[in-house]
Specification:
Elements lengths: L3 E7 L2 E7 L4 E5 L11 H14 L16 H11 L7 E2 H7 L6 H9 L12 E2 L12 H19 L1
Parallel strand pairs: 4-5
Antiparallel strand pairs: 1-2, 2-3
Helix pairs in contact: 3-4
Length: 157
């Protein structure tokens, strides 16, 4: 049961963050459907998103409370292991979860990721390097990858 929600105005448009008492349950690029009712998880997430969009934060440490199948959760966990500023293919993730033939299923689970950005499904690209589908839209995916590449560059120079 999701009882808390907060709207975050990102450079890519409004993001609705929802949370239970245990952690963040979803983060979607969409305007809010109801008035904000934040809790400590949503406000912590909003602060970390600020730092992320300023190129200062490379990973998130908000607790998650997501609904999904065991397989989906395995995929979402593997997504969190893709380093900031890096990309992986569906195949890489299928191999990471010990199921190299499950590329299609990985793609489907990736598309169902309920927590954008924090669980970085934008870092998954096609094996040929193409930006494949992204629930938030390809231009957002490109923007997020560029933001990370730029921040990495600035940290190293």
């Amino acid at each position: 049961m999701t009882n808390h929600q907060q709207t975050y105005e990102s450079p890519l448009g409004p993001i609705t963050i929802t949370a239970t008492r245990r952690g963040i349950s979803s983060l979607y690029f969409k305007p809010p459907e109801q008035a904000d009712c934040p809790n400590e998880h949503t406000s912590m997430c909003a602060q970390q998103l600020d730092a992320y969009f300023q190129g200062q934060q490379t990973s998130f440490d908000v607790p998650l409370d997501v609904n999904g199948t065991a397989f989906q959760k395995q995929v979402w966990q593997a997504l969190q292991d893709i380093p900031y500023g890096q990309v992986a293919s569906y195949r890489d993730i299928a191999i990471a979860i010990g199921n190299p033939k499950a590329m299609r299923a990985v793609g489907a689970a990736n598309g169902k990721n309920p927590v954008s950005i924090v669980v970085p499904c934008h870092r998954v690209i096609g094996a040929d390097g193409s930006l494949t589908g992204y629930a938030g839209g390809l231009s957002r995916k490109q923007h997020l990858l560029q933001l990370e590449a730029k921040a990495m560059f600035n940290h190293h120079h």
